[in-house]
Amino acid sequence: MAWFKRSQPELKMIGGGGEKIQADDLPDLAALMNMSIEDLKDEFYLFQIRKFMSRLGKVAVRYNLTENEGEKLYVNSARFALNQLLVSPAYVDNCLKYAEKHENENVPLGVIIDFPFGESTFSGKLLSVKECARKDISEVSVVIPPMFAEPEKARELKKQLKKLGRIRYCPVGAAFNAQDMTEEQLKRAVKTAEKTKIAFITLFFGETDDALIKSRTEMVLKNVSGKRINVFGNINNAAICTELLKLDTGTIFTPFADEIGAELLKKFKIKSLKLM
After folding, report:
1. Which helix (H) or strand (E) holds 200?
2. Does residue 38 register a pLDDT over 60?
3. Which residues pair with 142 in a beta bridge?
4. Those residues with Cβ within 8 angstroms of residue 13's Cβ, 6 or more apart along the chain or in another chain
5. How far is residue 152's CA from residue 82's CA, in Å, rounded to a whole number?
6. Which of 171, 236, 254, 257 is buried most deeply by CB count within 10 Å?
7. pTM for this model (two decimals)
8. What is the pLDDT of residue 22?
9. Whole-angstrom Cα distance, residue 235 to residue 136?
10. Which of 127, 158, 131 is nearest to 144 (CA)?
């Protein structure tokens, strides 16, 4: 992870006015806070790592989770301060149970409907959305099949997205397979979605290279200005997350979010955060 290296020994505060703490000032600051230098560094780095992780979401949609695995996944997502834990409808009730059990370690819960192919009937999707949205969910994504990006399906796509946008229980967004669509199909789909009241658009990818994820995301962001654009893919390193965040994306969803977080804890030798 060469991109973490600094040419000068300094710590830069994020989110303020660009303040810098020189490494030589650390002993004075540690004394002021009645902390050891190591504890001060640990606290500072953990704060920044959590700030970075708060732009990521953990995905759990494609595999069977045991009770212990599900609880561990939920608690660790909360401890990393992830933006969201995104699950299939089957996991919602269990996650809400974990939230009740670990009331001091909560993570926003999102649901993705009809992943990955979006082939259920629209009435079935609508029913699933309404059932999930009435629960303690932060937002719901609905997968739209690629065929709706064809010109002859534009009216039907707009009709479905309008209905989804009228659901008021929680924010509802559309998820498009940005990997299998052509650029023209994807551009047409997101431009249609932009004209409706859905809350956000999620671009999802399967096994592909980082360059395609970045180029498709960049293309969509150039064509859509009125909606939050999330990215969902098998992204397994912090560097590509940073590149995507530079594009002003929304949340980056990946099944490797917790692994990325664990790598950062190891990289910066964080001892104060204990994972389940």
Report:
1. strand 200-204
2. yes
3. 113, 174
4. 19, 20, 21
5. 40
6. 257
7. 0.88
8. 59
9. 27
10. 158
Cα 138 to Cα 200: distance, rounded to the nearest angstrom: 13
> Hey, which residues does 112 pair with through a beta bridge?
141
State the virtual CA torsion across 64, 68, 83, 133 in degrees, nearest 10.
60
Neighbours of 110 (CB within 10 A): 28
Q: Per residue in 127-160, pLDDT tens?
A: 999 999 899 999 999 999 999 999 999 999 999 9
Angle of the 238-246 helix axis to the 257-267 helix axis, nearest 10: 110
What pLDDT score does 39 carry?
84
User: Is 161 in contact with 153 (CB distance < 8 Å)?
Assistant: no
Token representation of residue 195: 């004209």
Q: Say if residue 117 is exposed, middle or buried (CB neighbours under 10 Å; 0-12, 13-18, 19+).
A: exposed
Checking if the pLDDT of 269 tops 50, the result is yes
Instruction: Tell me the residue type at 146.
Output: P
